[in-house]
Amino acid sequence: MGLFKKKCEYCRKKIKRGREISKKINDPVFKNLKEKTFCSLEHAEIYEKEISLKKCR
Ligand SMILES: [Zn+2]
Fold it and tell me: What are the C-alpha distances in Å from 42 to residues 2, 18, 53?
């Protein structure tokens, strides 16, 4: 973490500099907003959906 080559939080691919998308994800475990990095908006949305499903279990 903290390096300039970031990985997508969902698919774990490396993201080219300047192409990363940051999204604040509501974390159901810690009950706070955490900024995560994704390769695309699509992956950000899937990740957010999956984490909210975990909350229901
Ligand atoms: Zn991705």
Answer: 23, 17, 17
